[in-house]
Amino acid sequence: MPRMTTADAAVAILRREGVTNVFGLPGAAINPFYAAMRRDGGIRHTLARHVEGASHMAEGYTRAGAGNIGVCVGTSGPAGTDMLTGLYSAAADSIPILCITGQAPVAKLHKEDFQAVNISAIAAPLTKMAMTVLEPAQVPGAFAQAFHLMRSGRPGPVLIDLPFDVQLAETDFDIDTYEPLPVYKPSATRAQIAKALDMLAAAERPLIVAGGGIINADAADLLVEFAELVDVPVVPTLMGWGALPDDHRLMAGMAGLQTSHRYGNATLLASDFVLGIGNRWANRHTGGLATYTKGRTFVHVDIEPTQIGRVFAPDYGIVSDAGAALRLFVEVARARKAAGGSTERAAWVEQCRHRRATMQRRTHYDNVPVKPHRVYEEMNRAFGPETRYVSTIGLSQIAAAQFLHVYRPRHWINAGQAGPLGWTVPAALGVCVADPDATVVAVSGDYDFQFMIEELAVGAQFNLPYIHVLVNNAYLGLIRQSQRGFDMDYCVQLSFDNVNAPELGGYGVDHVKVAEGLGCKALRVSTPDEIGPAFEAARKLMAEYRVPVVVEIILERVTNISMGTELDNVVEFEDLAERREDAPTAVVALLD
């Protein structure tokens, strides 16, 4: 039996499980693992500037491609606690990432040794497994179980904590006979699918709500085929955006309190049946449940048994991986259609299309300072269907979801439930590592951008080019807007007179100088007419220098973006589109 250090065994298993990239920071307690990676030579390492940044890079890497599992590595103590936000974000959105931490020697764990924190206990609520490996011979099994759990059932993160002496110990291990453990995913039965289709056939105004589980299952093509077979409009959730192209005739828009379309909300409220696939009925999608559920029948398909009925009790629930369910939905629907059992839905589909063509928000403004709506209009012009967008939270993300267009799965990459500020920069870098040839465009407000701005240096060092659209109003814009209900504007101002950049006129941080100081390129624009040319210039700079390029757009200080408390009570703060010229980049042309 071959004999090797457990660190060598761990690296060999990573390679056998398909890992080619790792994000992290070395440190004394994890150096044996780094030495094993160096000896192996087959894993690319991207050196983050902050361990939380490494965890978000791993998230971006996973989210960018079917089958990807991002891996982040750090030393003992604060490295593990820094990763907790990434573990939370991954767990919340069903994203598998593997965090590997170093640890003090086993004999020192109870002695309050330097940086000896019980990270497995701390991380346990946020992971599918959090394990401090106390015996060297357990290392291969721990890693095999980690990959098994990450891929089985509802995907999610795992943390493995490796004490220093455990990493150095030798063990008997034969990588040539290692095989990944079988993956378990629940699958719907034909009888369950038939019952759901019977319920759908009885409806007059049905909808499909397409969640992130469809993206995770790499089942977007099946969703499109199924929707077309039954001729039912689709409302994607924010995590499912891109599963159906925005320009598809059955795309009904997103519903919700913030990241939604007026026509999407109107269509959901007009429906009488909702088939949810791979979604979790998030509160910012549903709003008040009484409004969301009134007058509608619900079928819910989800991979996690305890998700059925968690938010509200559906009329029928099916525990299944979204891909497995959709394969059966397609098979049974096709058989029924061939037997003449299809239902005529042309009138309902036309109603949904008409709402989409008449209930659009205005984007074309010539105001100076710039209104954010115009930024997204110009992004639609500049960036095509192949663009991968990355965003996190705030008014910038909400407006992006209201105005941008996404045509493919994994081309809207977003931290859905957790929404940690600072996520966008490192996640975008992870996407770049996963898909080096992609056009990656990130969208941030100034506060999100400042949270982990140091990670831009990672993009410069490792030549990870992408365009970062920075919309700057020198405000915590979303919090300011929510404070309207408290009649205050308190502790949300980011504006100040920068003594080194008086030309900013009180907008505070000179993001251009900071980005350039970190090895990137940056442009600043102040008028609507400058935005398009700036995006074109950014493309050229990105191609020439192979580094991130920041395009900062100075916005008006105060803009309230459409949102509300119920699907039928979303407040529209700006004029609605009345002519095609008011929303010139809308996918469906406005009916004048």
Secondary structure layout:
Layout (H helix, E strand, L loop, with lengths): L2 E3 H11 L4 E4 L6 H10 L3 E4 L3 H14 L5 E5 L3 H5 L1 H9 L4 E7 L15 H5 L5 E4 L6 H13 L6 E6 H5 L1 E3 L17 H12 L4 E5 L1 H5 L3 H11 L3 E3 L25 H9 L2 E5 L5 H4 L2 H5 L3 E6 L13 E4 L2 H17 L7 H13 L13 H11 L5 E4 L3 H9 L8 E3 L9 H11 L5 E6 H6 L4 H6 L5 E6 L4 H6 L28 H7 L3 E5 L2 H18 L3 E6 L8 E2 L5 E2 L21
Parallel strand pairs: 2-3, 2-4, 4-5, 5-7, 6-7, 9-10, 9-11, 11-12, 12-13, 14-15, 14-16, 16-17, 17-19, 18-19
Antiparallel strand pairs: 1-8, 20-21
Main sheet record: 6 strands, parallel
Number of DSSP strands? Answer: 21
Basic shape: globular
Distance between the termini: 76 Å
The overall average pLDDT, rounded, is: 95
DSSP strand content: 15-25%
SS-based class: alpha/beta
> Strand order of the main beta sheet, please?
3-2-4-5-7-6
> Helical content, roughly?
25-40%
The helix count comes to 24
Alpha-carbon Rg, integer: 25 Å
- pLDDT below 50 for ≥5 consecutive residues: which ranges? none
Structure characteristics:
single chain, alpha/beta, six-stranded parallel β-sheet, 38% helix, globular
